[in-house]
Predict the structure of Helix-turn-helix domain-containing protein.
Amino acid sequence: MPPRSSPTARQIRLGTQLRKMREAAGVSSREAGALLGGGQPQISHIEAGRFGISEERLRRLAAFYSADDTALIDALAAITHEQRGQGWWESYRGILPAPLLDLSELEHHATRLRTIQITHIPGLLQTDAYARTIFGSTMPPLPETELEARVSHRMERQKIFARDEVPPYEAVVHEAALRMRFGGRKVAREQLETLLGLSEEPHIGLRVIPFESEAHIGSGHAMLYAHGPVPQLDTVQVDAAHGIGFLDTEPHLRKYRSLYDTMRASALSESRSRAFIQTIVREM
């Protein structure tokens, strides 16, 4: 079987965790490859996400590495059963950039989601009209087919809130995002009213940082913290000038957990945040 030309972020993550296990055990890739009968190149491909691995082989490697974190091994074993083409986001492959599909997959498998937004309403809480305005203002302009696909994809992502088991979702949003009138007064008002309705849902928490907050948030920027089934599989998604990025090293995870906690502490309570948004709506 030829190597995957473009493994998903989740496939790469599986390989990364296997590499960490091997290195922690002091086992060379040549030794690990010999165990599986494929040699060093096979292990390198697996650890880069270019080759898949069965649950049985994963557990053989874990035992060879004397790995005893049962929860992590079980979580990795679950990933081995996932096949490309199973997720709804796969219908957008070849139409939208791969990182957007990786984001959908990340949200789908998350056990909890926390986000910070400074200038925009969080994507999972956006209306169709608001999302269309955001994507319609990119430079250079998107082709009409991609614009429609991006809007459709964003709306599809929101279906995680309609599942039987909804991951708890919490957003810390700066007042600047609430005051922006993307698309004009009508679109902005509809967006805020939708936001108010969603904030009443038991699985959605919304907190606002008002302009009058004296806390320094100069280092704050948009991010999504997705909790995995075990802490080692947590992931941070950040937006950058070059596109979407994913971070998963422990120093990065620790940094963004601290950032989120700091900004959350600077925000209003959920009830005061709703009242605050209602005031902005009345002012429109």
Notes: Strands lie at 112-117, 169-174, 204-209, 223-227, 235-240, 243-247.
